[in-house]
Every structure is written in C-alpha cells, then in structure tokens.
Amino acid sequence: MRRTTTGGPVLRWAAVLLAGALLLMGLVWLTPGEDDRFAGSAPQMEAVARTLGKDEVLKRQTIGVLTFDAVYWDGDAVVFSLSDSHRAYIWSPDRRPGDTLPLWGPWYTFWSDPH
Hints:
With about 120 residues, the protein is α+β, with helices and mostly antiparallel strands.
C-alpha cells in the first residue's frame, strides 16, 4: 500500500515560513509603543521631577521603561529629553510650556525638527 503525500517538503517549508511570519507580526503588534511606555513610566518620572534639584542635571537615566539622555529643569518645568526621537516629555504642574502638546495632567510633549 502506498502512502499519499500532499506537497511534501515544499508544503512543510511554506508552513514554517507562515508560522514564522505570524509570530513576528504578533511580537511587533504586542510590543508597547513609546506612548504606552510613557504611560507606564509617568509615575516614576513625576517622582524624579519632584525631587530633582533646580541646578541638577541627570545624564542617561532609565526611569520606568524609558531611557532619557538628560533630565533637567528649564524654568519652572522638568524636561525629560529623548534625543534619539527628537522628543521630550515635560512635567509642568503650574502652566503649559510654550510650543508643547498636552498629554494629560501636568504632562506635555515636544518634538524638535532635526532638519
């Protein structure tokens, strides 16, 4: 009696490629974006902002799940700088800093154009 096959190695190879592509898509889809990482890091960032000295500058700090190139006071606001994305998060409980977009509560964001 002969065994019947329906595609052999080619079909198995296609199934492996499809499974790999689906796995990769799932991992990318489930990876939190920067806004999600900010939302999870905001409480720790606020704690840093409240305790940061006016003349103190923190270089290359990981707070929550975000890594900042610098954290510093600029006037009456604390700036959390992400130079790789030309973006900064700003904690300003008293007023909205100029040229920023509001996120929620005392949080704002700023994008600089690298060009």
